[in-house]
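Input/output pair, single chain:
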Amino acid sequence: ARHLVASAAEVELEWGGYDHDTPGAASHTDGPANTRALLADGKDHPAAAWAAAYTADGHKDFHLPARFDLLMAYLHAKQVFEKDGWYWSSTQCSVNYAWGQDFVNSNQYYDGKKFEGRVRLVRRIQLST
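Output:
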C-alpha cells in the first residue's frame, strides 16, 4: 500500500529507446525499477532523464509512474491531470512501444517510443501495513 504524490510540473517528451528492448523496464507496478532500468540502459530516454534530474520541495525520489500507477491516478485523482493528450508510463510494451494513459476516458494504450507525450512524475510514500 502506498500514496503517490504527483509532480507539479509536467513536460512533453519522447519515451526514447525506439527499436530497442530495455531489460527491466516492463513492470506494470514498479515505476522506480522501470525508471532505473531506463537510466542504466545506455540509450537516450528523455522522460527517464527528466525524472532523474527533477527535484521538488527537497525530494529527489521522483520517477516515471508504472502503468498501474497511472490507472490508480485516473481512478482517484484524474482532476489533477490534463484532459487533452495522454501521459507516458515507465512500462515498456515492446521494442517500439510503451504504455500510456488517457485521462479523458480511462484508456490505456501503447504508442511509439519516438513520439512525444505528456510526462508527469510521481514519488511513493509507503504506508505501513
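The chain has a mean pLDDT of 95. The radius of gyration is 13 Å.
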